[in-house]
Design goal:
Blueprint lengths: L5 H12 L4 E5 L4 H12 L4 E6 L1 H10 L11 E5 L4 H13 L5 E4 L4 H9 L12 E7 L7 E4 L9 H17 L6 E5 L10 H14 L7 E6 L1 H5 L1 H6 L12 E3 L3 H13 L4 E7 L5 E2 L7 H20 L3
Parallel strand pairs: 1-2, 1-4, 2-3, 4-11, 6-9, 7-8, 7-9
Antiparallel strand pairs: 5-6, 5-10
Helix pairs in contact: 1-11, 4-5
Length: 314
């Protein structure tokens, strides 16, 4: 299926125009991770700092024909011992020093990076729970669509969901959605005490009414068809300004989110960008299975989010 992926291409163009952010790539010691890092530099999306064993990174670049490490003035290498967790700690220190505004996962395991992100010693935590959000560009949806949390929080409780929602709302603001509509998903649109997600959805909506969640418009619980289709919502007599046109979908747990995310990509022909949120700087958490375009879009999303966070008065 041919599709222009207008929204993500616009995001990449926007980030390129704003390319004054520094991004530390943590332990880029495999070909895919190093290629992605150098592609970001060549496209001038960000100033790239490669954090890891310098000799190994340089040898990998030469083996891949990328002798151009010296030809890319926007690429710097910060040498560390050949240990991924140590590299992650050094990258966190660069954030603390103000040298870096974005982090990107290289070839280390996700749990190795996350262990540093959540550690108090690294200084990357905020008062919010760490979460992840995807931004989808779907051929059959006429606007960008965020979904959270599909990666980090397995079975979030109510207060964790509050932070997940607020993180996603802040990201929506960064990409220009002034008052994002949040559809809170469950198995049904009716509140059922036997389904915890419906109770959490109702509570989240009331928390938004009382100012415990700000900047967005929430509705739920909503079954997926009612959330995404205005016709389905009308058929079930659901009066809602969110149902049928959400900007953000909040999933009840990671299993639901992971399944939906992969369905969007593999059946819905979506491209997506993703970020870890709730940390002092946005974190690009890509997979080896991600497309080159998705990796670039994720970095672009990180650039835009970093600039937005920098513009907010302390």
């Amino acid at each position: 299926m041919s599709h222009a992926y207008l929204y993500l291409n616009q995001l990449i163009d926007r980030a390129t125009r704003q390319a004054d952010q520094a991004m530390a790539v943590v332990y880029p010691c495999e070909t895919v991770a190093l290629r992605a890092s150098l592609d970001v530099a060549r496209r001038n999306l960000a100033r790239v700092i490669l954090v890891g064993p310098a000799s190994r990174i340089a040898a990998l670049a030469r083996a891949d024909g990328a002798n151009g490490l010296h030809d890319l003035p926007q690429v710097e290498i910060v040498d560390t011992p050949d240990d991924p967790v140590t590299a992650a700690r050094v990258a966190a220190a660069l954030v603390a020093e103000g040298r870096v505004q974005i982090l990107m996962k290289g070839s280390l395991h996700t749990d190795e990076l996350m262990s540093v992100l959540v550690s108090r010693e690294a200084g990357l935590r905020t008062s919010r729970r760490i979460s992840h959000a995807f931004l989808f560009d779907l051929p059959d949806v006429d606007h960008p669509l965020l979904m959270t949390d599909c990666v980090v929080n397995i079975e979030p409780d109510l207060l964790v969901k509050r932070d997940i929602v607020q993180n996603a709302i802040d990201l929506a603001h960064a990409i220009g959605i002034v008052r994002p509509r949040v559809g809170i998903l469950s198995a049904t649109e009716s509140i059922n005490p036997a389904i915890r997600g419906t109770i959490d959805a109702a509570a989240l909506c009331k928390m938004a009414d009382r100012g415990q969640i700000t900047g967005g418009e929430l509705d739920g619980p909503l079954a997926f068809d009612n959330a995404i289709s205005a016709e389905c919502a009308r058929t079930k007599n659901i009066a809602s300004t969110v149902a049928g046109s959400p900007d953000i979908l909040l999933v009840p747990n990671l299993e639901t989110g992971n399944t939906l995310y992969k369905s969007f990509v593999h059946l819905g022909h979506a491209q997506c960008a993703g970020l870890v949120l709730g940390t002092r700087v946005p974190v690009v958490l890509t997979s080896r299975a991600d497309s080159e375009f998705s990796r670039l879009a994720s970095v672009a999303l990180g650039v835009v989010m970093a600039r937005h966070a920098h513009a907010i008065p302390a």
